[in-house]
Write a structure and sequence with these properties.
heterodimer; B: 300 residues; mainly alpha; 0% strand; Yip1_dom (chain A); transmembrane (chain A); Yip1/4-like (chain A); transmembrane helix (chain A)
């Protein structure tokens, strides 16, 4: 008799008296998979015009440039890192450092490849150094910060080239360029340490800051010693 | 089924029994362990020259330091386990060698680091190249025909020379000392990293020396070479002499002499290749010099 009764009961009857107690919060939305797929479509970049895609990336890069020029403690550079900005700055700087006099002796300034190697290889080594010393920043975030902080030096390079064109007296132009390069080197170092220094334990901060100082010093020296063809 | 008696706290009588059986057995208590690890990682506290204590600690930490294989990140992280004060202390020790103080035993104390050697070499590369360029500029100052050149290729050459020296020579010295230790039963030779460490820190004195080498006077440059060689060479000699002195006289002297000679070759080679002296410092120009000057003046 009991079996017949059990067979006649509707399925899952035993579960009807299961209740969720009040102290277990039930959250989330039950959305139909189709609806979430259409929400996904909005962020697909296949259908939007190319101009929109490029402008979005350029806006992100420009936003970070502003953060570098006015370095205050914000995490914008760290959170949404990208390497477009560093690439742009590196190529611009390397191109601007060309055009030194082409001597057959081979005594001229750095070649394009040398600038590229110094900037990228130097950034990778500094990032590895800070990670080996126990830093909490991630690899690409650090590359991003170091690359973006080259911006003041890039601006200084532009100004130096203008000074070389406009001012003919060598001593005066050298002093002006020295001041510009020193100021921008200080700005770069200060901006990058504002972002990087917090990720280190306090007794190793100087060990992490010194390679950054050396890196921007070398770039500053390359800018200062740029001498165009006479 | 465990009785309630089994579950209550039991005195560990076995340890006490074992100890009473063999009083000389080494015991390890937790406080002692944390004390020794704190002592070896904090050089400010452990000033005792207790060799036994340090050997025991090296046995403890020597195994702990080499965590993981050489392909893991943690392996390399163990070589960067230094603080700012430790690095500065080691640099001070390399600049002011005290006779009787072995650099490795006194400053490195079984925790060699790679931070110091690497960044000292990198700084030396750029300081030699930049100062060399500066000395080139200063020595040609009076020459009207001179046009300033950045000479960037010097950086590449300096990098090659400095890094090859700082890594291949310690490899050779370490290999030689280990081979001799194997055949001659000497006191313990240094590990490869400690040798690299001592060579790296001994190169520090060349950084200010290379900056001062840009002064274009011969006597200044040679005096600086002598001072730098004395300081740097004595750090190396004081480090390696205790290891080789038990060997035969000839081998010992030959080893130390070759270390000093290689170091001198580096210093003199760098000075001669990268730096130039002023061509003429004579205040009174010769008549031939005067005529060429005036003819150049007329052409302008």
């Amino acid at each position: 008799m009991a079996e017949v009764d059990e067979a006649n009961k509707p399925l899952f009857a035993g579960l009807s008296d299961v209740s969720i107690s009040d102290d277990i919060p039930v959250e989330g939305d039950i959305s139909v998979p189709l609806a979430s797929h259409s929400a996904d479509d909005e962020f697909s970049t296949l259908d939007e015009p190319v101009k929109d895609t490029i402008l979005r990336d350029l806006k992100a890069v420009g936003n970070k440039f502003v953060h570098v020029m006015y370095p205050k403690k914000s995490s914008a550079l760290l959170r949404d890192w990208d390497l477009w900005g560093p690439l742009l700055l590196c190529v611009t700087l390397a191109l601007l450092l060309q055009g030194g006099s082409s001597d057959s002796k081979g005594d001229e300034g750095p070649q394009f490849a040398e600038v590229f190697v110094i900037i990228w290889f130097g950034s990778v080594i500094i990032t590895l150094n800070s990670k080996l010393l126990g830093g909490t920043i991630s690899f690409f975030q650090s590359l991003c910060v170091l690359g973006y902080c080259i911006l003041p030096l890039c601006v200084a390079m532009l100004v130096c080239r203008l000074v070389l064109l406009l001012v003919s007296a060598t001593t005066v132009s050298f002093i002006i360029r020295l001041l510009i390069v020193t100021a921008s080197f200080g700005w770069s170092t200060f901006a990058s340490t504002a972002f990087l220094a917090d990720s280190q334990p306090p007794n190793r901060k100087a060990l992490v800051v010194y390679p950054v100082f050396l890196f921007y010093f070398v770039i500053g020296w390359m800018i200062l010693t740029f001498s165009p063809s006479s | 089924m465990a009785s309630p008696d089994d579950l209550k706290f039991q005195e560990f009588d076995e340890a006490a029994d074992l100890l009473s059986a063999d009083p000389g057995a080494s015991t390890l208590s937790v406080s002692a362990l944390s004390g020794t690890t704190a002592g070896t990682q904090d050089t400010k506290v452990d000033l005792s020259e207790d060799e036994e204590n340090q050997q025991e600690n090296s046995g403890l930490l020597g195994g702990e330091n080499k965590t993981g294989g050489f392909w893991t990140f943690e392996y390399y992280q163990s070589f960067f386990n230094v603080d700012t004060m430790q690095v500065l202390d080691r640099i001070k020790g390399s600049v002011m060698p005290v006779p009787g103080r072995n650099f490795i035993k006194h400053h490195i104390r079984n925790s060699p680091d790679l931070y110091g050697p690497f960044w000292i070499c990198a700084t030396l590369v750029f300081s030699v190249a930049i100062s060399g360029n500066l000395s080139n500029f200063l020595s040609h100052k009076g020459d009207g025909q001179y046009h300033y050149r950045p000479q960037f290729h010097k950086v590449t050459i300096a990098a090659l020379v400095v890094f090859l020296y700082a890594w291949l020579v310690p490899l050779g010295v370490w290999g030689f000392l280990t081979w001799r230790q194997g055949t001659e039963r000497q006191t313990s030779a240094y590990s490869f990293l400690e040798t690299v460490c001592v060579y790296g820190y001994s190169l520090f004195i060349f950084i200010p020396t290379s900056v001062l080498w840009s002064i274009p006077f011969q006597w200044v440059q040679w005096t600086l070479i002598v001072i730098a060689m004395v300081i740097s060479g004595s750090v190396l000699v004081l480090t390696f002499w205790p290891v080789v002195r038990d060997d035969t006289k000839v081998t010992a002297f030959a080893t130390v002499a070759s270390i000093v000679v290689l170091h001198a070759l580096l210093a003199i080679g760098c000075k001669l290749y990268f730096f130039e002296t002023a061509l003429e410092i004579t205040p009174t120009p010769t008549p031939g010099h005067l005529t060429t000057n005036t003819s150049m003046g007329q052409m302008n």
